Predict the 3D structure of the following.
Amino acid sequence: MPNVLREDLRLPLCALRAGAVDRNIARFQRFTESSGVLLCPHAKTTMAPALFGRQLAAGCWGLTFATCAQLEVARRHGVPRVFYANQLLGAADVGYVCGELRRDPGFDFYCLVDSVSGVRLLAQRVAQADPGRPVNVLIEGGLAGGRCGVRDVGTAIEVAQAVRAADPQLALAGVEGFEGLAQYRDAGRREADVRAFLGFLARIAEAVDDRGLFGPGEVLLSAGGSAFYDLVIEELSAVRLGRPHRVVLRSGCYLTQDHGIYAGLLGDIHRRTGSAEPDLEPALEVWAQVLSVPEPGLVILSAGRRDFGQEAGNPVALAHVRRGTAEPRPLREAGWTMAAASDQHAHMTAPPGHGVAVGDLVALGPSHPCTTFDKWREIHLVDDDYNVIGTAATCF
Amino acid sequence: MPNVLREDLRLPLCALRAGAVDRNIARFQRFTESSGVLLCPHAKTTMAPALFGRQLAAGCWGLTFATCAQLEVARRHGVPRVFYANQLLGAADVGYVCGELRRDPGFDFYCLVDSVSGVRLLAQRVAQADPGRPVNVLIEGGLAGGRCGVRDVGTAIEVAQAVRAADPQLALAGVEGFEGLAQYRDAGRREADVRAFLGFLARIAEAVDDRGLFGPGEVLLSAGGSAFYDLVIEELSAVRLGRPHRVVLRSGCYLTQDHGIYAGLLGDIHRRTGSAEPDLEPALEVWAQVLSVPEPGLVILSAGRRDFGQEAGNPVALAHVRRGTAEPRPLREAGWTMAAASDQHAHMTAPPGHGVAVGDLVALGPSHPCTTFDKWREIHLVDDDYNVIGTAATCF
């Protein structure tokens, strides 16, 4: 079996600790089931069909995607239920979705609407493409200053009425929002902001329910990135409508966790809930070679911004393997930092006596898995000794 | 023929204006020929074999790459001469290169060394892999506080002596440096810093030449990103050695230019040289749909940080196409800015009366092409009317 630490593979490379991934998937599935919510993980994180398969096998309700190109990958790999957490508007995009709905009666699809004009455009394009059944939509509520989504209940009602008027092209299945944007706000305000936003989604749902504007079936209330899912579960489960509803949680980063932003946010969740659940382990690593130690305390690695994301903070140095030893030595507490990154190099500052030489290996732990996954076409699945036990292709 | 403006394709998409690309390739090739230097463009910019083919057909000397995975793509597509602008150290990576050298007598390969220990490791691995002929190396000189590369002439001589001691595994072909890191320095110091660095490379070459440590054939002196190639041509062409030398320029971004950092740097080049040559046009665009106008002055587009690079500045809004008209209206001077980007969305602030509605299209012009190319597996080649006349696959 090829081994990362023995340099059997091209460098740099992206490794996923398979044991940690399997434990994360099982634990998060159990956590959502015991919380009484449906799990529909955002699969744009990995775009790796082999990992979709593990999530579906563990029992998740469906998978979430954000673009039509992503959706097409999912459908090619047989994903039966898709939450399209975005507005669906493009002519070619609507055409593709309607074709899939017509072709496969088992395909269950949901997308978002947030404006009367968007509803009318979607309905018109659905009518042209003729899927043979309604397209399910949820009203998106948005944070002020944030992204898509209605900003007030009055607009939400107008949008719901537009959906009703677009019957039988569209059917209103629920209400959705993405509270995760609040993670960029001041730490002291975050929890209150998220609760207020979830309360806004609840008020939309109640107003639409009062007016009888939801379509047939259970109402879906959906939110949940990976920063505040405890609050989503608490607030949206507490909503009372005139008919049954289900909470759909879309968190995606639990699969790999991370060594940065989501590590900290998981700590916040544990503190808020007073529980150690869910217990998630960081699983994603980028391995690079020491190319040069051109100045004391400056170590140049063979991985750069084309190999890891930086927008949620630079990766941290995890481990050092002296060439030929295959013995990782932890670096987390060793005082290394990434001073800069070029396209293909990381510029690391290391403390005196760092003991690292040209040809050694260093593992980096990224913050925010999404923008590291999308740098790779192949992710190596490794066991605890860094033997490569499989490879997951990504389809970005 | 599918047309971008008529929404015949999935959105978002990446478009390359084919006419501008062809003109850029021809003009830059002419510019380097008339300057008397060899062009070996850094092809990691695009990683699109169809574009490699256009550059080679125009007459470039070779192509430059930075990782062994990139090199393998080049070799699969028949690129005969590769400048590997990086240290080559990994066991699997050295094995691959040596296998190619053995398999194909027409394969001409050059890589970098910057330390005695790196030279010894490379030589040992070359000896094991037995390519049947020496691996050509150039000594890399580096900027203080920068990336790889020796920091003083004394070390360069030691490295050159180590290469000589590694005969017949290695042959010393020249001296290399990347002056482009100086673009991040204070504007007032840049030109002087770059000239000083190029002078340092020249001193290395002279010292190595004086000691008779270069291998057989013409000496290669190579530098050149896309920020200061005028200075590279001037300074390195003026070097006088005891034997003939050629200057190898590795600029890669000329192929697409950009709408940000390199647009500004090209202006600097024109000012320094007092010439309008080379005349390059921005060719790379990301087209997205208006998904939502949730607040006055806030426009949410369907492309985000997974669709364009941001590390050299956010993309600018280039054009607006009202849905159904296929008529682009320029936005460059219209006061739009990108306030933020999520993975799959751009958050644009637009002035009052922006006249943009849900379902319209907006074109974005990235800064730094490299980190936009690597977001896409397919780049659409378009004519001046945005008809899709071809598709270039990327192989990142």
About this structure: The longest helix of chain B spans residues 187-210. The first strand of chain B starts at residue 13 and ends at 17.
